[in-house]
Amino acid sequence: MLKNKILKIVLFGPESTGKTTLAKQLASHYETQWVPEFAREYLQKKWDYNQEICSLNDLPVIMEGQAKLENNLLRKSNKLIFCDTNCVVTQIWSQTHFNGYCSKEILYRAKNSDYDFYLLTDIDVPWKKDDLRDRPNDRKKMLDVFKNTLEQYKFPYKLISGSLQKRILQSIKIIDKLI
User: Fold this and answer.
1) Three-class SS of residue 64?
2) Cα 171 to Cα 41: distance, rounded to the nearest angstrom
3) Residue 137: per-residue pLDDT
4) Which distant-in-sequence residues (6+ apart) come within 8 Å of 107 by Cβ?
């Protein structure tokens, strides 16, 4: 790692695979920041107030909100930052929820995103229902989409599986090598 460079790690994978929990635990372990998922709060409010789900018009708002949140927390980070999501997830979400469509802007930002490593979270944990999760029966298919996208872009990643404790230990081993 370059001196003064913040190592950016993305928790990446299908819904309900433990990304937020793992991001929080790793940030605590490394005494640094983690970036929550902007879309979760944004879309939850949309659901709570109007019973509306995500539309194509929401995706640029989500992408910009996520980038702003990340940039604000990046300044407070200590050598590492853990991102609960990024613009590549926005691309995947667009393509899987809007019949393969993704705007050129989102595709460009995803292909040219600047993250150091991806921890791909496996589907070997129970799916938990909430207002926003909608793919309990497509977990394997979604994991394949996430994995194939990382491989298509040649982004470095490792699949993280098992219990939370095993995932934490796997992640720490990988991250310690990166630092």
Assistant:
1) helix
2) 26
3) 82
4) 91
Task: State pTM to two decimals.
Answer: 0.92
**Nearest-angstrom CA–CA distance, 148 and 75:** 32
Q: What is the pLDDT of residue 40?
A: 87
Q: Which two tokens stand for residue 134?
A: 């909608």
Give the DSSP H/E element, type plus range, for residue 142: helix 139-153
Degrees, nearest 5: CA angle 159-163-169: 65
Distance of CA 118 to the CA centre of its chain: 9
CA angle 160, 167, 95 (to 5 degrees): 40
Angle at 122 between CA 86 and CA 60, to 5 degrees: 20
* pLDDT tens track for 35-50: 999 998 999 899 999 9
Max Cα distance, the chain (Å): 47
Cα-Cα-Cα-Cα dihedral sign, residues 84, 87, 92, 95 = positive
Spell out the residues 6+ positions from residue 130 whose beta carbon is closer than 8 angstroms to its own: none
7-23 average pLDDT score: 95
pLDDT in tens, 70-90: 999 999 999 999 999 999 999
